[in-house]
UniProtKB/TrEMBL annotation:
Descriptive protein name: Methylamine utilization protein
Secretion signal span: 1-16
Organism: Montanilutibacter psychrotolerans
InterPro entries linked: Cupredoxin
This protein's UniProt keywords: Signal
The organism's taxonomic lineage, starting at the top: Bacteria, Pseudomonadati, Pseudomonadota, Gammaproteobacteria, Lysobacterales
Amino acid sequence: MLLGILVLVGVTAAAAAELEVRVNDRRGGPVSDAVVTVVVRGVSPPTPNTPVRPASGSQRVVDQKALAFTPYVEVFRPGDEVVYSNSDRTRHHVYSFSPIKAFELVLAPGAKSAPLKLERSGVIAVGCNIHDGMINYLYISDAPWAARTDARGVVAFRGLPAGAFDVRVWQPRLPPKRPDLVQSGITLRAADRRSLTFSLSLLPDSRLQFDREHTRY
């Protein structure tokens, strides 16, 4: 029986598809911190076979160090929690005006916030009311597969079932209030290994010109 289970697991793993998504700017340079989501085409709400992201209820930390939020963009599922940590030697006043989750946190050096639960899907822009150049984005998604690109502008999804998918990309420097970029009807067969490329036209980095009174999310 055990041998049969191991064989079945091996066959299932071998049959799973892989999808690599590469995000570039118009000059061909890599774009990090782009959120890529993958959904089964025609299914709403998404019903994944093998979610890549952990189940809702997980907790992650956004740190503040060298007067910057790290990471700049973080991906969550509804029900996840975020904790803000202050590794700087100065006080930070973390806040969001977002209708999805408005909050204020005053953090002394070395302090951490209580966990904040993120109940709703959407994008939350977070700033520091003391240091205007600090900004962070929380991307909450109920898509079955969601992740952000690394420094190479790449994210890889493994263990996808065969089927047709829509692949979407969002990045903070895209023009606001527009739909995510999408490539629709991407078909994967068992054991496929495919790659997609998105090319983005980006606005200037908002961390260099952040306006606390006009956050976009």
